[in-house]
Amino acid sequence: MCNESSHDKHAFRKSRRKVLKGLAAGIGALALPATNASASVWEAFFQKNFRELNKTELNQVLARLEGEYSKEYGKQVTVKATLPIEGVKYGYGLDLSRCIGCRRCVYGCVEENNQSREPEIQWIRVMQLDKEKGVDLSHAEHYYNPPEVPQEGKFYMPVQCQQCENPPCTKVCPVQATWKENDGIVVVDYNWCIGCRYCMAACPYSARHFNWAKGKLPKEEMNPDTHYLGNRPRPVGVVEKCTFCIQRTREQPGRYPACAEVCPVGARKFGNMLDPKSEIRYLIENKRVFIFKEDLNTQPKFFYFYAT
Amino acid sequence: MKIYVWRCLSLAIGLVAFGAVVVYAAEVEKYFDRHGTLIVQEKVEKYKRRADEGTTYPVPPPPFSEDIFPCSDCHADMEPNPQRRELVDMHEDIVLNHAEGQRWCLDCHNLDDRDTLRLISGEVIPFTESYRLCGQCHGDKLRDWKVGVHGKRTGFWNGEKQYLLCAHCHNPHSPSFKPLQPMPAPVRPENLDRQGSQAAPTHN
């Protein structure tokens, strides 16, 4: 297993500065905070990469963010930075023989993860496909809306970040604002992301989403239990995606991801792939399993399976 | 496209231990072989209500409709009627649509104590263990259910879990899963207002 946090730490700052400089040269202006900006805006601007922060600095950053969010959303917001659990590699299973395409997972995710309601951002996309044609994306229907699902002759395939073991998205990031953690979750440091969207282009699953505007997130719907690398409110101009509900699943005991919890048919399975007694291991070893776009060698830790 | 992932998986994560789950499954598997055939007959034993009722697998309360349980509220004073017939005074809403040709209420419900269920072996079980009733004929599903693959477990992936009963998703009398109304479709890209400043996007 590769430990990416052991990279040369200075690389982050240097390369980000270089990119920003390049941008400035290209467009003639560097987007510096306005001169009347508050101290915390300046602090955020000069914040180091998440992986470079020492404990004191990290606590300062978390405290600053908690203060900002609590004020903005009018409630006590927690920003955790819980580390990966030793000996855990997360895996996800989705039973295509059960899923009925009801989209409860899509909205469960939006609520848990503080996605923007407008403009609409959804980390899960459900495709309706023809049983006869199988997983042939040229027939994928994203906007199906019949009175009832499942529809005769159709099956449904939800797609979200596949948490690749060999993620193409992280490799193209010019500032290393996105990386794979030791528990396998691919994360984004929203304070470091420069919004170039190379990662979005590199992702074969269209699982990354860009914040074009300051998203609307009603105060009363904001989930105050957040993680720095997960569901905390995102600034404008950064990329976001599914993190297997890092704010839930890294706890001990850790709840199931929100999408698995709301699924009314029990099609969504989650657990530790290194634990031979976990449901994810059982299904990988006993069921007919496939991974999406296998030929790209991205090695997803998201497994589609047929239980029947 | 349907490629099996053994190779990739073991490569990426270095999983081996193929036998482990089989052993594990065998440990919890008490009544059925892998084809769902009953292989161990249990002792016939009158079910006694215990304080730790239904501890085999922790489950949420069975999904009874209001005011129906305990059944003995009515049935305690009634003469049990084993006759197969059309019910008219009560339960007339219960229409069997579940291998109904060969079946009657008392294949599952206990004639002598309506607050319990009765297995083919004669063993009497509480409603909190109704999965065992279903497992008599759906052994493959029960086996998957026990490991959390069919049906659903709630709670903590690395801690305490609860198992939804088969009856939480399937009406035992008419068990096919009932269709649902889907939640709204996403906004089409051409209708997506990226700045989020204008009126509500159209769902269609």
Task: Give a structural overview.
The complex is a heterodimer of chains A (308) and B (204). With 308 residues, chain A is of the alpha+beta class. Chain A has 9 helices and 12 strands. Chain A has a single domain, classed as Alpha-Beta Plaits (2-Layer Sandwich). Chain A has a 4-stranded mixed beta sheet with strand order 10-2-12-11. The longest helix of chain A has 19 residues. Chain A is globular and about 60 Å long. Chain A starts with 9 loop residues before the first helix and ends with a strand. Chain B has 204 residues and is mainly α. Chain B folds into 2 domains: 43 residues, no CATH class; 121 residues, no CATH class. In chain B, the strands form 2 sheets. Chain B has a two-stranded antiparallel sheet. In chain B, strands 3-4 form a two-stranded antiparallel ribbon. In chain B, strand 3 and strand 4 form a beta hairpin. The two termini of chain B are 31 Å apart. The interface between A and B is large, with 73 and 55 residues.
